[in-house]
Amino acid sequence: MSERRPIIAANWKMHKTHLEAIQAVQKLSYLLDRKDTERVEVVICPPFTALRSVQTLIDSDRLPYGLGAQNVHVEDEGAFTGEVSGPMLAALDVGYVIVGHSERRQLFGEDDATVNRKVKAVVRHGLVPIVCVGETLEEREAGGTQSKVAEQVRMAFDGVDAAAVSSAVVAYEPIWAIGTGRHAEPTDAGQVIEVIRGTLSERVGKDVGAAVRVQYGGSVKAGNIREFMVHPEIDGALVGGASLDPEELALIVKFR
Ligand code: 13P
Predict the structure, then answer these.
(1) Which atom number of ligand 1 is nearest to the Cα of residue 102?
(2) What is the 243 CA–ligand 1 centroid distance (Å)?
(3) Rounded to whole angstroms, how far apart are CA atoms 132 and 55?
């Protein structure tokens, strides 16, 4: 039995105003009970504009959910119009930051070196990165999945100390499975996750590789979450579209 606590994170991407976010978290809190959140750690990652409202709700109603941001700047402060820094997130009681999501990599030009600087910015302020890695369909068809993912993992954690690596979360999100309704086979995802752990073990030791939590992401919904959660290598899910509906998200967390 693995000692790693499963973690299901809702990545709301660019959806929900702060009012809609509050409503969704309130609804979720009626649908989930303590037993659910003891079994699985639940993390809500709303847009920046809703972080403060969701944090206040979590705090005032003592909700057992973690709070995550979807991005961070590499620097702590400065003349970077439009950006948000690690210290700003830490001051909001944000616990997690999604780093290197494929949408950031593909649409906003983030490369592995930027992802590495962001991971360092996150851990520098005591926050936990959820580092996203995954291959394109072309890379998969060319047999390059494992080497691509291993390289992304190596680069993301380059120069990050073992303690920070061991508390980090990695999300394996094959790009062809994101928002497409076509999810990876759990055994296949499990094999890639073994490569992720192996890569980290080589760098910082076997104990660390075994401690890191690795999620699967890509077209996860209530109807398929169980297949992933029962796989011994998979420690939870990073859920996009299906997490926008609190009823569906509650079913995902309650997977049977
Ligand atoms: P979907 O669950 O909508 O496929 O998105 C996955 C994702 O990108 C989560 O970060």
Answers:
(1) 8
(2) 9
(3) 23
